[in-house]
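Holo prediction — adenosine-5'-diphosphate.
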Amino acid sequence: MAEKDVIIGLEVHVQLNKLNSKLFCGCSTGYHDSPPNTHTCPVCLGLPGTLPVVNRRAVEYAIRVALALNCAIQGETLFYRKNYYYPDLPKAFQITQYDFPLGLGGAILIRGEDGEEKRIRITRVHMEEDPGRLVHAGTIDRAKYSMVDYNRCGMALLEVVTEPDLRSPKEARAFLDKLRNILEYLDVFDGNLEGAMRIDSNISLVGGERAEIKNISSHKGVEKALAYEITRQRSARRRGVAQVQETRHYDELRGITVTIRTKEEAHDYRYFPEPDLVPMRIADWVPRVEAELPELPDAKRERFVVDYDIADDHAKSLTSEIRVANFYELVAKRASPRLAAVWIADVLKGELNYRDATIDRFSPGHMVEILDMIEKGKITEKGAVEVIRTILDHGGDPAGVVEAKGLARAEDDAVMEAVRAAVEECAQAVADYRSGNEKAINFIVGMVMKRTRGRADPGEANRLVKEALDGAGGA
Ligand code: ADP
Ligand code: MG
Ligand code: ZN
């Protein structure tokens, strides 16, 4: 439900993890399966005398994202030092952007709580370097010591800041899903990697101060933390306790937020322009990056509706992940596009979801074969679902599964034979049906399904039984 008294704005940290190297040094970004502190160099460790060099491709990726989020790209952009001391930040400052961010004033569309399209404004998109990662020995509040891994230190990050346009935890989640979707379309981001997206959620009740819940990685986690926070702030308000502006931590295990500190101000950080980097004039880069932008989710969705003549809901579901969209297009070229939309959006996606699997687990060729068998009446819909499940759970190919599990739809003659036999066998049900109990037919249809071992189409069986009874009865 959209909640009138709730105001939410997000600050999303996106790792540009498809780059080859970090933002200011040549260290490789492929550290995810490596031991700690193996992807470091004097630059990202912040040793004295080292100098940063901007990764050109990272800036291009950042422009790509900012354009896709409909931001205005600034002609000139500048890095700053944000000073603070923390063990994950060996230089004791973070190179980030401040009052000349790369992109300003964008927006993306989500489906709002009322089912209507809703525009969420983006305040800014800026570049910065990722700090390292602290690994606590136990939970953050009880750990006796923490360890630090600098592999992540210096990774290129984008911070995407929204205006406070979101009205419920569900809308926040829809925003994050859409953002991830766009980033994956742009091929700058892999959301499955650890730490790929980290979210700070700001939330207040109308007229009250806001709390900022720091650093949650999962979209579901954000939704839950916000739901908890709404309840907490409302109940504090009822008790007459004023909310102060503060930073909170979400304790995932306990499902609660706890206060960490009251709000710091920008001037606490002593921002000043990074003297080791010159301002970048990026205006000239924009036309080329823009020309190379791929088709984005909203445009693809509209094209699917037109090109394939499918329902908007199906188009939305099929374009909500680039890999699913590509899968669909492969299949739609070789099968009925409408049938493919139903079976991929409504059935296959559900089965994958249930197994926590992605579309890579299924082959487009197999989908084409299954659709062909459905269209030709070789298997029933129930049979087709069974084929998909079997392949997902045990592998194999459609023809082989149909053969092995005896899923081939019974030939018409065999169904007719089963109908005749069932009518003969179920004298009582036939009599009941003829004396006006329409439901009695279900029993007879059940018998047909049993005789054909489920390989008849239930609708078809129903029609045939009716025909047999009504025809014979009238004679
Ligand atoms: P900072 O975190 O540096 O103080 P801002 O004040 O610009 O930066 O706000 C950061 C985030 O807080 C933005 O995502 C913004 O949408 C959100 N925000 C601003 N005002 C509110 C509010 N009253 N309730 C909830 N979120 C808010
Ligand atoms: Mg903030
Ligand atoms: Zn390095």
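READOUT: The two ends are 59 Å apart (CA to CA).
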